[in-house]
Write a structure and sequence with these properties.
- With 306 residues, the chain is of the alpha+beta class.
- It has 2 domains: 8-115, no CATH class; 119-303, P-loop containing nucleotide triphosphate hydrolases (Rossmann fold), CATH 3.40.50.
- The chain has 7 helices and 19 strands.
- The chain has helices spanning 99-114, 142-151, 185-190, 242-251, 256-261, 265-278, 293-303, and strands spanning 8-12, 15-19, 40-44, 61-63, 69-73, 77-82, 86-91, 118-120, 122-127, 130-135, 155-158, 162-166, 172-175, 181-184, 207-210, 221-222, 225-231, 236-240, 281-286.
- The strands form 4 sheets. It has a 7-stranded mixed sheet, with helices on one face. Strands 11-9-10-17-19-18 form a 6-stranded mixed sheet. A 4-stranded antiparallel sheet has the order 8-12-13-16.
- The chain is globular, with a radius of gyration of 19 Å.
- The termini are far apart.
């Protein structure tokens, strides 16, 4: 399969992306003078079925000796991520558009690791004057809480992946990824958000792709707080010490298996330690009911977004 021309220009985490493939989730690159050299290049072409011969042929994850990573989703897509700059995509089913879910999810996490960034499994929002990441594993309710905050007028910076790095002065910064929320139908209906214009995340799935682009700003911004999500019968917010925050932060590193196989365990732990030292970390326990969302958001606005 020949490589196609890179006609599309997007912004992702503040990077200039040149892509052979259409990515409607990403904002267009709007610089007045588009540079010749992009930060990230996305091509379409043949991809090997593994990078390490010790891996099973249909393994989801394969890591090469050079730190390149192969993501393979059977019957959907193979994505080869190399050097923090190149993403090569082989679509295995031309009728299944969910390959973009994996490109902008797992594969983006691998790219961040290759660029020595810390991909936190978190939604990230601008709440008042504060930038807050809500960390939790899949199913923890990050997107539902983000949608409730969005309904209050707060700004979405990313869903599911908060890309974190220190700046030259040592401040902990977030690179806003792109404005998207993946929400189940009952969440959309409970929050009275439109379902009709939202495409399904995967064929036949009652989870939808909401793209609230209004007010999105791709410029890096200081991370002011991390909120770790948990369950309880009543909403409760607790500030954690750096010592208690560190293992939680490292535990919410996105794509940890890849980080270990890339030899990055120590580096990502050091990143988590820097975040724990410099950024307030809170534990939010709350009921996982739609009728408790308002009081939970009130608590966040009063204590974290002030």
């Amino acid at each position: 399969m020949p490589t196609t021309q890179l006609h599309h220009h997007y912004v992702l985490c503040g990077w200039h992306v040149r892509s052979a493939l259409t990515l409607p989730e990403l904002p267009p690159w709007s610089a007045s003078a588009t540079p010749v050299d992009a930060d990230v290049v996305i091509e379409e072409g043949e991809v090997p079925d593994r990078l390490d011969l010790h891996d099973p042929v249909e393994s989801w994850l394969s890591v090469g000796r050079d730190g390149s990573v192969l993501l393979q989703v059977p019957q959907v897509v193979r994505i080869h991520v190399h050097a923090g700059r190149s993403m090569r995509v082989q679509r295995l089913n031309r009728h299944d558009e969910s390959w973009r879910l994996f490109l902008l999810g797992s594969a983006l996490g691998y790219l961040c690791l290759q660029r020595s960034l810390f991909p936190l499994h978190a939604a990230c929002l601008r709440i008042g004057t504060q930038t807050v990441a809500f960390a939790g594993h899949s199913g923890a309710g990050k997107s539902t809480l983000a949608a409730a905050l969005l309904k209050r007028g707060h700004g979405l910076l990313s869903d599911d992946l908060a890309v974190i790095r220190p700046d030259s002065a040592g401040a902990i910064m977030v690179l806003p990824a792109f404005p998207r929320l993946k929400l189940w139908r009952d969440t959309l209906e409970s929050l009275q958000l439109p379902v009709t214009d939202a495409p399904p995340v995967r064929p036949g799935m009652e989870k939808f792709d909401l793209r609230p682009s209004a007010g999105f700003d791709a410029a890096p911004v200081r991370l002011d707080a991390v909120v770790v999500l948990g369950d309880a019968s009543e909403p409760h917010l607790q500030r954690l010490s750096p010592q208690h925050a560190l293992p939680l932060l490292h535990g919410y590193l996105a794509r940890p298996q890849a980080a270990v196989r890339m030899g990055l365990h120590a580096a990502t732990f050091a990143h988590a330690a820097a975040i724990a030292r410099q950024v307030p970390v809170w534990r939010l326990r709350r009921p996982r009911r739609f009728d408790a969302l308002d009081i939970t958001v009130d608590l966040i606005e009063a204590h974290v977004g002030a």
